[in-house]
Amino acid sequence: MALSASDIRSALSLPQSTPAPAHHRRTHPSTTKKPDGISRELYSLIGPSAPSLAAHLAKPRLRQKPNLGGGGTVKWEHRPFGNSARSDTLQLFHWVKQSDPIGDYPFAKYNVQPKSYTYSQDEYSRLLEDSEWTKEETDYLFSIVQEYDLRWYVIHDRYNFPDGPIRAIEDLKDRYYSVCRKLIRNRPWPGDESTRSQLLNSYQFDKEREKMRKNYVASLEDRTPEEIAEEEALFVELKRLEQNERKFRKERDDLLRTLLGADSGLPDIVVEEDGPAALSIEGIRKKKKGGLDIDLPPTPSNIIQLGPPVSKRPPPPKSAIYDAQHCIVRVDPPAGSSNTTKVTHVPAHLRSFKLPVPKATIAPKVAQALAELGITYSRLVMPTRDNCSQLESLLDATTALIETKKIVDRVEQDIRVLKARLGIRESESADRDPKESTPMDVDLSKEDRDGEGGGRAQSVIRGRKQLCRSISVSSIDTSTSVHTRTGTKRQKRG
Amino acid sequence: MVNYGGDEVSALVVDVGSSSVRAGYAGDDTPKAIVSSYYGYRPTAGDSDVQMGDTAGESNPEAPKPRSDAKLYLGQHGPSIWRAGMEIGHPFRDGLMSDFNPIPALISHALVDVMRTNPSEHPILVTEPAWNTSANRERMAEIMFEEFQVPAFYIANTGVLNAFAAGKGSALVVDVGHSMASITPVVDGFVLRKGLVYSALPKLVHAHAKHILANPTPVRRGIELYPHQLIATKFPVEPGAPGQFTLHEDRLAGTTDSWRSWYENREVDEWIQSVASVLDQGWNEQAAASRPPRQYEFPTGYNMYFGAERFQVGEQFFHHSPQLVAQNPNLPKNIPALLSESLRACDPDLRQVLMGNVVLTGGGSLFAGFADRLETELSRNIPHVKIHAPGNPMERRYGGWLGGSILASLGTFHQLWISREEWQEYGKAIVGQRCK
């Protein structure tokens, strides 16, 4: 918006500054000329001395209107026209622009005839004989199909072959399409086979199936109000059950996330990062669903809620070369788990976190054995891949050693016991009971203890047990979710 | 011009119905000329302006047809003006044209006298009821080509045109007219003739209303339906009190029976239109009694509040009492019976489509509460019903004309006209071939 300084001055009732008239003169080439929109008398009174007022009274300068007409008036004429879609020479009159060219009638192009098949007497007797249909009736059928442009409902309504049997709409369609198929199949075909089979497919008609479908539609309509009410009640009940199940599963998922996240070897912070992300994904999905949409299958498994699934990560195209270049080592998901359960999920982690932990029952022994060797296995100074694998193999070896030692011990103990029994047959005293010995004795040479033994051992294995329990729960869960998924699918199809 | 497919060739659309003849230009939204289909005539020719009442008795009551040279009184200043010895004629019977003699005069009155057009310059589209006979449509073509010298002609079905007026190619058209109620399934612009049903239901409703008015009830006497033309003076009276009026004694002698009954029917029609109604949830004494009564004054000055009985009138559209059925074995079918009969004749696949596109049209459907009641009746039996009932009374009353106006202004339609040339070449057979 172009506001001149004089405009502002007049609006603020400031005295006119000297350069303003000059400025004004620039916009209006001659200030002496009377501007439009002000009478001559008034102008002579105020004169050029009130340029601001004159500027107000002057015709406002609006943005120039777009020139749509291209100038001048358009001439129309009442012109006769023929129609090439007609077979006669009817002349009608309409108003058109004079500039419009005299050509073919623009609406004639909409007069399209569908492709129709005709057959000769020879073809009919060779291919198209049918015990149900005479040639005359077939001819009639083809003519009426042509007349009503394949509008089958109309064709069926108008179909009236004298002395012919009453035909259902499926009979008519079946006859027409089968004749067309036979003609296509048996005539020389200029194009290739695929276009021919495509065309054949478009003329496919399964009469029995259509009849069955129509019967279903009819039976659907014939339901009594009671039946409809019952069906609706059942449907509502089903929805309620599904909703309950979904709620239940969600609660279980929450529980799983809390338990497994902390127990799957992930530090707490990772779980915390995982949690909100999972929640937000869920939230988005909920928003998409718009509340109560049962058509969407329920969440396939709790994997998605625990974090983005592995399979969703797009694998890089040239993985082997790419990996070698970037020192990427891929961790194979644990083998033997084809179904998507908790086990297959490998979140991002430090390699050192995934070091195998020896069995809780023998962990202290392993620690002690390694301590004897002067190795602290709990913390590697350089947890590289090689070091990790070496430590892993070391641990494996140690575990194996300890296991062997255990067996040896047991056998020795047995031998000793048997010898003792042999020696002192009369006394079966308590000195033979291994449980009386200190269970946590670090001395490996001493007699071993059973895993299922005292309460202190149980406290050690508690975490393990929980893990087992939750894994079993999760496997149940996936099985149920798979089940419901197929259930909903069936429902959709039906 | 190509944008909406229209191409105006200044065609005329003529919709001859049993209550009125509608005529206008294709492309307009309302007809320019609306002329009553009833006409007055003097049974004897020649005495055009001499008002003598003694000629009335000479007409033959058995065949109320004017002689072909009789003067016809048409339009606004036609039948509704009292003339001594003037009979009233009507070219329709059961919704079909039964008497073609006055038809050219009626059409000519609408086109030439009212619209001031020259029919020989315009293609003309005429409507016909869905159950029209081929003889009738050929006769109509003959009138158009031979008497009006039209350059092109087409005859289209009112059911299809009503569907077009509602913007639908497939629809179930429920048309309640002046004398006939019909249900027409339309698919892709074609009438399914097997599903077409119709009955003279509006006539039954009318007769029922007349019966209610003419017969005394416990609270009032039978009502005299004198036309206002026969009443010389009247005085205001209290509601329910007998009317105080004096008749034009001089006119009584010259009044013909046909004119009298026609005007009485008009009085009944007016009463129906302003007072009668139908309950939207089926007949219910309490609901009818709880509605406010309506006052109505007849030309005699007699006026009365009509309560529950005004709802009985509309009930005839939807429900016939068993005793009424027992009395008249061939009672016209009511709307629910017509609907179920029509739907039964249609393909199961089509029923859903049709019920989702119910078009309610015709002047009779403007009966108060009709659309609501129809919706109730339909949705009681069929789920997913959608009724298209234009709120604009013009669109309802002249739906057939409006559809014709749309059709005849389409560019793609102009290949369907039966031209004069074709008429001369093929004769009457072309009508059946072209207008399917």
Report on the structure:
The complex is a heterodimer of chains A (494) and B (436). Chain A is an all-alpha fold and 494 residues long. Chain A is built from 17 helices and 2 strands. Chain A has helices at residues 5-11, 19-27, 40-46, 51-57, 121-128, 135-147, 152-158, 169-186, 193-202, 207-221, 225-263, 268-289, 302-306, 319-326, 363-373, 385-423, 455-493; strands at residues 76-81, 92-97. Chain A has a two-stranded antiparallel sheet. Chain A starts with a helix and ends with a helix. In chain B, the strands form 6 sheets. In chain B, strands 3-2-1-9-10-21 form a 6-stranded mixed β-sheet, with helices on both faces. Chain B has 16 helices and 21 strands. Chain B is globular, with a radius of gyration of 23 Å. The interface between A and B is medium-sized, with 32 and 34 residues.
What's this entry about, in short?
Chain A is an all-alpha fold. Chain A is built from 17 helices and two strands. Mean pLDDT of chain B is 88; it is low at 45-63.
- Provide the structure class of chain A: mainly alpha
Strand order of the largest sheet of chain B: 3-2-1-9-10-21
The strand count of chain A comes to 2
Rg from alpha-carbon coordinates of chain A: 47 Å
Total helices of chain B: the number is: 16
Amount of beta strand of chain B? 15-25%
* Spatial arrangement of strands, main beta sheet of chain A: 1-2
List the helices and strands and how they pair.
The complex is a heterodimer of chains A (494) and B (436).
Chain A: H1 5-11, H2 19-27, H3 40-46, H4 51-57, E1 76-81, E2 92-97, H5 121-128, H6 135-147, H7 152-158, H8 169-186, H9 193-202, H10 207-221, H11 225-263, H12 268-289, H13 302-306, H14 319-326, H15 363-373, H16 385-423, H17 455-493
Antiparallel strand pairs in A: 1-2
Helix pairs in contact in A: 11-12, 11-17, 15-16
Chain B: E1 12-16, E2 20-25, E3 33-36, E4 39-41, E5 72-73, E6 87-89, E7 92-93, E8 96-97, H1 102-114, E9 124-128, H2 134-147, E10 152-157, H3 158-165, E11 171-176, E12 181-187, E13 190-191, E14 197-199, H4 201-214, E15 231-235, E16 244-247, H5 249-252, H6 257-274, H7 285-290, E17 294-297, E18 303-306, H8 309-318, H9 322-327, H10 335-344, H11 348-355, E19 358-361, H12 370-381, E20 387-388, H13 393-397, H14 399-408, E21 418-419, H15 420-426, H16 429-434
Parallel strand pairs in B: 1-9, 9-10, 11-19, 19-20
Antiparallel strand pairs in B: 1-2, 2-3, 4-5, 4-6, 7-8, 10-21, 11-12, 12-13, 12-14, 15-16, 17-18
Helix pairs in contact in B: 3-14, 4-6, 4-8
